[in-house]
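Deliverable D4.2, example record:
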Amino acid sequence: MKVSSVLESEDKVDITPMIDVVFLLLIYFMFLPLQQEADIGIKLPSNTPPAENLELPSEHIVEIFPNGLILLNGAPMDGIDDRNMERLSKTLTRLKLSSDRAGIDTVVKIQADPDSPHQRAIDVLNASALADITKVSFASYAE
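Output generated by the structure prediction step:
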């Protein structure tokens, strides 16, 4: 009889201290974010008038198709196999000069089809460099 009572007492585990610790941790992590946010010192925006004469950059879209065709703002440019891209570089130069006179930045956005030759994107970058356009970005192709 005594052996069974000893074995019974060893099987019982008191989980009360573990529950106390869990509640303390719960309370701690509930109030920790409130304390941190109070230290930040958030300033809400005041009633300020909108900026006047907000000038957006002059953005031009160059599309590159899988067959090598290049469109600048929807207009076809040089031939499919033309690597010099003279027409594109001249057109970009005119657009850059026009934007410079207006005091606006010129931005070229290249939208290349995933199946288009990568060399055509390099050709467009070279034409942009010839036109002295430094703000060039790539965009996802819109089908």
